[in-house]
Amino acid sequence: MKDTVTGNNKGFTLIEMLVALLLVTIVLTVVSGTSFSTRRNLDEALNDIERGIRFSSDESALRNSIIRVRFKLDEDPQTWSVEFGPDGNFVLPPINHSVSQSKSDEEMEKKAQSEVDKQFSRIKEFQESDREFPLGVRVIGVATSLTQAMLLDGENSVYIYPTGEKDSAIIIVASDDELASLKISPFTMDIEREYFTVELQRDGDITEAQIELAERIYQEWQKN
């Protein structure tokens, strides 16, 4: 008579191991796919802006007119466009974005900006309508040598002149988990791109974290 040995040493079957591996693969694919898609959309937006700046530099010389890349930050979704305006002799009014600006000064500035806007029209050869940003991507702020401040809302433009000169500018663009800056040189075609990780505190607000990081990036750019 043979003795029978019983116990709880039963291992995983081949099918169970294959199912477990399949589940792990699906999870990793979803996580990495989301991250890749987010970076891809961010890069798409940055590439488009760079293309608009470079196109504007060439077009300004060809048309002998001021060109601007105009960002509308309050729209949902946000949009931007490339527009041509008057010749290089046109003088842009000074822009004052001081926090202590009076109501009357603010109204005068809006009126002056409205008069400037009448001088510009979208370049249809570049885009038929205002360009929207890819899903999950938005501009946090734009600062130029004209504004002397980073604007988080409203409208702001980077101006390019027939002489080849353009506004020194920084454009900060965000995805859900990343920020990127485009630093535009006033005298060369150099556009420097840099990426930053958004560090979100526990129960923190993502928008506030993005703005705080954008402010630090702007302050560092301003120093240099």
Task: List key phrases describing it.
single chain; 224 residues; alpha+beta; minor pseudopilin epsh fold; elongated
Question: What's the number of structural domains?
Answer: 1
Mean pLDDT: 85
Helix content, binned percent? 25-40%
Structural classification:
alpha+beta
Main sheet specs: 5 strands, antiparallel
CATH topology: minor pseudopilin epsh fold
Radius of gyration: 25 Å
Distance between the termini: 90 Å
Per DSSP, the total helix count is 3
The run of helices and strands is HEEHEEEEEEEH
Please report the first level of CATH classification, the CATH class.
Alpha Beta
Low-confidence stretches: 1-7, 28-35
Structure in words:
- This protein is α+β, with helices and mostly antiparallel strands and 224 residues long.
- It has one domain (14-223): minor pseudopilin epsh domain (minor pseudopilin epsh fold).
- The chain is 37% helix and 24% strand.
- The protein is elongated and about 85 Å long.
- The termini are far apart.
- Mean pLDDT is 85; it is low at 1-7 and 28-35.
Question: What's the structural blueprint in terms of helices and strands?
Answer:
Elements: H1 14-63, E1 65-72, E2 79-87, H2 103-117, E3 121-122, E4 131-132, E5 138-144, E6 155-160, E7 169-174, E8 178-184, E9 191-197, H3 206-223
Antiparallel strand pairs: 1-2, 1-6, 2-3, 2-4, 5-7, 7-8, 8-9
